[in-house]
């Protein structure tokens, strides 16, 4: 029985030693890895060149060939990401970093070494770059500006309406694509804006509708729509009639001498409305044959009036 106890104790001590050894070994291995990764190493990587700020019409050709080979030096820690992917991306500004030629952008690699170093970061030292010059081929699509028409179905709450006109951040957009497609398009519309029971200001971003066209891009792709919505009311006012184009040798008498107008206006401007803001005309030149009446027309009204109608649809007259 004592012998069994001694064997168990011995086994126990051996197990403890194995665990301690394993722990120390793991710690030593980690220190070794850290020591190795702290050293400087050299590595060849590929830099994928991407252009920004190109014109909307530009299409980069042979994109898979637009690489710069870089031979770099850095700490092992820093180079770890390149164990699995030996490429990264650098971004060039088409307006400032390259020289445009017909169907070609020329990137002077050596001249812009500083730019590559900035984008890689201070942890990397660039030892060499190839090629000295990178030619980035492109093609140019057809383009033109076309007007945009807003489409919407907007129902206002009772007593509310839009004040003034709808406002847009753009009135035309650039379309880009094959010349045969671009030539067919003379105007575009927005997707329909549908709003119900509106009683507050409108501010929406609406996409341009290009669903009918294939391989066409539009810039911008959407427009901002704005409108002021406020309370409106109806009013009435008496306005005198003016007879126009009457020959000087013709004398007439007409009745009534004034008409009643009804109009729809926002509350803010309601009290400022005057009869002199309107001009109602009866055109003598519109009389046909033995016609004995005029049809009055509103030829001038304040711009902020939404709609106006004349109660009297005809003005009778007789020649004296």
Automatic annotation (TrEMBL):
The chain crosses the membrane at residues 21-38. Keywords: Membrane, Transmembrane, Transmembrane helix. This is YbbR-like protein. The keyword DNA repair does not apply.
